[in-house]
Amino acid sequence: MADGHDHRLHPRSIDQQRLTNGIFTGIFGVVTFFAVILSLLQDDDIGTLWVIVRFLAWLLLVVLVAWQAYRWPPRAYEHTAYRVDEQGIEIRRGVFFRVVINVPRSRVQHIDVSQGPLERRYGLGTLVVYTAGTDHAKVELGGLAHGRALLIRDYLLPTGASDAV
Predict the structure, then answer these.
(1) Which run of H or E residues covers position 69?
(2) What's the CA gap between 8 and 31, in Å, rounded?
(3) Quick one: pLDDT band at residue 1, thresholds 50, 70, 90?
(4) What is the DSSP string of 26-40?
(5) Least CB-packed of 58, 95, 133, 149 within 10 Å?
(6) Do residues 10 and 145 touch, judged by C-beta distance below 8 A?
(7) For residue range 129-159, what is the model confidence (pLDDT) as tens digits?
């Protein structure tokens, strides 16, 4: 477990994120479609050309959001890694803005492993580490295999001798 090597998230996290993003895109498309319809109903003097332009703009926007929703998860996957060692856990993520979060074991207060319905479908889980301190008091690492998240949780939990609380 605490090998000190960089690990990637589980590859199924890409599919899970794509499905999550697809659901968001569908909801976004329906809501914006009704917004376009309402805007057309409020305009009395609108010509056929403007109706077509508004629908084409809506369609282009939804297609761009869907394309980005499909394209983004592999890029985020490539730029996310974690390392567990005897000191604690280090999480690195970010495509444009890179973030490195180090959580020492001595600062860990509580750890949860959660699974939403889509994570359960793909056998994934989210490790949630609660720490002592104000910055990064709650650190989440999603996209882990559920069994791996449980192993990390068990490893990072404070034991009798190292319990700082």
Answers:
(1) helix 48-78
(2) 35
(3) low
(4) HHHHHHHHHHHHHHH
(5) 133
(6) yes
(7) 998 777 768 999 999 999 999 999 999 987 6
CA distance 115 to 129: 14
| Nearest residue to 111 via CA among 77, 76, 84 | 84
Distances (CA, A) of 97 to 80, 118, 126, 136: 12, 27, 22, 16
Q: Which residues fall within 8 angstroms of residue 4, CB to CB, at 6 or more apart?
A: 83, 84, 85, 86
Q: Tell me how far apart the alpha carbons of residues 113 and 150 are, in angstroms, rounded to a whole number.
A: 7
Whether the Cβ atoms of residue 17 and residue 119 lie closer than 8 Å to each other: no
